[in-house]
Amino acid sequence: MSFTFGKRKNAHVIVSDDDGDESITMRAPGSTPNNPIVPKEMKELKRVFDQLCFFADKAEAMHRLGVIRKTMAEYNWPLTNSMRQTRTSNAEQCKSDIESEKEKKMMDLQKEQSELEMILSEIRCRPVQHIRPQDTAAALESLGKKATKREVQNMMWEVDEKLDGVLDWDEVHLNFERNIRDSSGLEPASFYHMVQFMIYDHDNNGMVSIDETMNMLYARVGREKMETTITKLFGADDGSPIKEVGHQGGEINFERYWEVVIRENQKRFQESDLGKAVAEKKQRKQTKS
Known about the structure:
Blueprint: E1 3-9, E2 12-17, E3 23-27, H1 39-52, H2 55-75, H3 81-85, H4 97-124, H5 133-142, H6 149-159, H7 169-181, H8 190-200, E4 207-209, H9 210-234, E5 251-253, H10 254-271, H11 273-288
Antiparallel strand pairs: 1-2, 2-3, 4-5
């Protein structure tokens, strides 16, 4: 049995069974904030919101900056003023051609880095900051998930309380609060799951590590629930223990994260009172037929 749920209309969530002949509507849980986000999580949420605003316009520059920083790190020696001054000294004459070429390359990279950072700064300083559909699509693509236009529209619809086609800080903040309080699995959560992954992915490498996840979860849910969530995300599907492989105790990509959180969301709904009521209704219809 499957359900279609998660559409919001006037602060209500619409749930339909797979026959599509009847819908059940209830008010979305937690529509009045009562559990504030912990300060650390609020800071990270704001970081991700800023990152997503005009993401499509920033994506190319951010990708190139990543390449530049990686190249400069491989050289492992930043170009300092003292190094520039030695170019006119006698010692400079003794430098090998390779070292001189490396220094020139570093100067070129630093110049390009400054230009790209200026472009990004101009985008970040736009007077109105919001997230557009193309920004959501570009962010998903950067995480390795190709989404259709309809899927992106549905994700935006989950958050777009003002129905103006873009998402501002207040809307993203409200959506996040609703989801961290949701215990029914009814709250529209696709956009939230993307944002939560990006919060966990503090170093922006497209992977979420156990260490990164534990850092954020402990303050919100405490040790016991944190360990349960960690096991679901990083353990095997059969419930076997976590295998600590990769960086920072183990890592997962967005595809794995998405698979787990969507499955848990559906499970939470099916175990809720409303989910059980829908299942019983379906069972009665099957019995009659």
